[in-house]
Each structure stands twice: as C-alpha cells, then as structure tokens.
Amino acid sequence: MQLKDNNLYYVGGVVRDSILGVQSFDTDYCYEGNAIEFAQNAGLNIIKENPAFGTVRVLFDEKEIDIASTRVETYPKKGHLPVIQKIGCPLCEDVKRRDFTINSIAKRTTDGEIIDILGGLKDIEEKKLRVLHSESFIDDPTRIVRALKFSVRFGFCLDENTKKLQDEYLNNINYDMSYHRLKKELVETFSLNRQIALEKFINDGIYRLLGENSKPPLVNRNIEELISSNPVKNVWIVYLGLFNLENIELTRPEKRIIEWAERLKSGDKPNNNTPPESILINRIQGEL
After folding, report:
1. Which of 132, 157, 193, 225: CA 20 to 30 A from 5?
2. pTM, full prediction
3. Which CATH number fits domain 1-126: 3.30.460.10, 3.30.450.40, 3.40.50.300, 3.40.630.30?
C-alpha cells in the first residue's frame, strides 16, 4: 500500500536511487503545499508535527513516514541551519534549495511523473555532481563531504564549475559552521569503508573542514582492507582517528576510542578493555 496524492511527491535520494537501480536508505516525501494541513485533511495518523519547518510524521501502513512541505529557505548565518522564508511554495521553488541536481528530481506518487526542472536526469546519465548555485558550499559546507559520499557510492565526479567552487571554498573556509552537521556527513561517508574516500578527503583538501589546525596524515596502509579483516562497529573513527578532531563533538565511547589510541601510541599495551578501533588506529599510525 502506498501513500498517494496528486500534490505528493517522492523527492531527492529515493528518486535518484530508483533511477540508478540501487537500494535507497530512506524515502523522502514532499507535499506541494502545507504538509501538515494535508495530513490533517487526509485523516492520516499523525505522530508529530513541526509547524516551524512545515513537516509532519505520520504512521502509514505500520511505518513512520516524514512528509515535508515545499518551502523556500535562506542562510542568513552561513554554515548553519537555514531559516524558513515560506512554506507551501510551488515545487519548482522547493527543488532549488537542494544540494545537487541529482537530488532535485521529484516523482509524483499518483502517476509516477518525473519532474526534473534543473537537469538532474542528464547529470545522473553523465555521472556528474553539480551544485545549484555559486554560494552552495558557502551556505552549507557539509555539502562538500556529501559530494565525497556520492562520488564514492556512485562513482560520480564534480562537474568543472562545482570543482572550482569547492576548491575556492576550501581555500577560504568559514570555520564558524555547524560541526554537528559536518560530523553526520563524515560518519555516513567513512562508514562506507572505502579507501578512496580517505584518499580524496586528503588529496582534495577536504580534511581542512575539520579545523584550522588539521593536517593530513601520511597513510601507507589500506584501511579498507584492514577493517574488512578486523570488523569494528565505529568504522568511521578508524579513518578519522588519524586527524585532529578537536572541533567534532564526540560521544563518550568515541572519546574513549581516541584516548586509548593515544595511550597505545605512547607505549601502553592493549588489554581486554581496549576498543578494537583504538588498536587499528594504532596499527595504522605505528606502521607509517
């Protein structure tokens, strides 16, 4: 059973992944208009409403589904959360707030019509990642890490102008950014366990987003192979444990991993309480 309405669309990753023929991690719905009013008028089982963002969570067919209103956003404080200017705008305005053209494609839930205003289908075909405007990375620098994630997952590359905009930003970073959002993208990217992600992270200078004091480590081990033969829970931190993470807010278990890695580096011997991630970080650093 599917949730359908002429003004209700699949949007973003679920449409992109369907076109690519790959599994999608989640399903994003967008309602052209006010999603909360739609859910109320349709008699849906509403779990939670967020009027400030025009989003609503409903229980449908025994699944929790998030539906977003079409909206216009601005970034008065660059690098931080956007401010909603308008809820219930036309779909053609809503897709312009997204990160890349490949994520701006919508698909109507009733008849499956594809709405591609910004050329996302062509970029999928050409395996290109293209931002929607020249200040995209200035508004949200986490999009740089998101681009890295998509390039690793799908084998896409930045188009010429997007690469230019990325390089310009990485040479003039505004460090007053949301590191909480940055961490989320870093975790998702490096949890893929792909050595090429680390190589591009270093070679393209993306590591500079971590902080002004961040420096690239010399890595001569294939971390992907190391993790594949030594499964760990926190894959991402084995990769990023090589960097200065002072700006990244770590959980208590994550802090413990980094602390133990430092202790091992100083000569302590591992014991039964040593996190396996710490041992792997030490093996990588110790064999440079």
Report:
1. 132
2. 0.94
3. 3.30.460.10
